[in-house]
Amino acid sequence: MDLLIIIITSILGTTLTFYVSHELKQGAVRASAILSLCVGLFFYFFPEVFNAYLTKNIQIVFIGSSFIGMVSPKVKSSYIRLSIASILFSIIYINKGDFFNGYGGLLGALAFISLLTTLAFYDAIAKNAKTKKMLFALKKYLIKKSNVL
Questions:
Q1: Which of 106, 109, 125, 136 has the fewest Cβ atoms within 10 angstroms?
Q2: What is the pLDDT of residues 42-90, one digit of tens each?
Q3: By residue range, what is the domain housing residue 83?
Q4: Phi and psi torsions of 47, nearest 5°
């Protein structure tokens, strides 16, 4: 259950930051700072809402995932791609172990790795001609099925 809460927190951190930054025109830094401050203050005043592990890690995961949401819209990021990157971020964060001990900028590095991996994977799939044909056929099939229903 803790893993699911961490993943949901990561998705919310990313998508809310991207939304506040671009849809509400607040800028990436301000959006990340405001949302992270709200989450931090919530757990400062209500530390008993979750167990000690979640109370500590939800704040950290939210701040780290908000770095993913700071991406420029020129990168052609969609909410789905950002959500996938945030899921990858939370999985790496949970399984990081002692590998990153002693390095500064852990959250930024994990956010960068997650976002870059997701965008590169998406571009590799999108540029493959077979994949495009298969996705087009699947889309056509789903539209046909939805018209029948």
A1: 136
A2: 999 999 999 999 999 999 999 999 999 999 888 767 888 999 999 999 9
A3: 2-148
A4: -75, -10
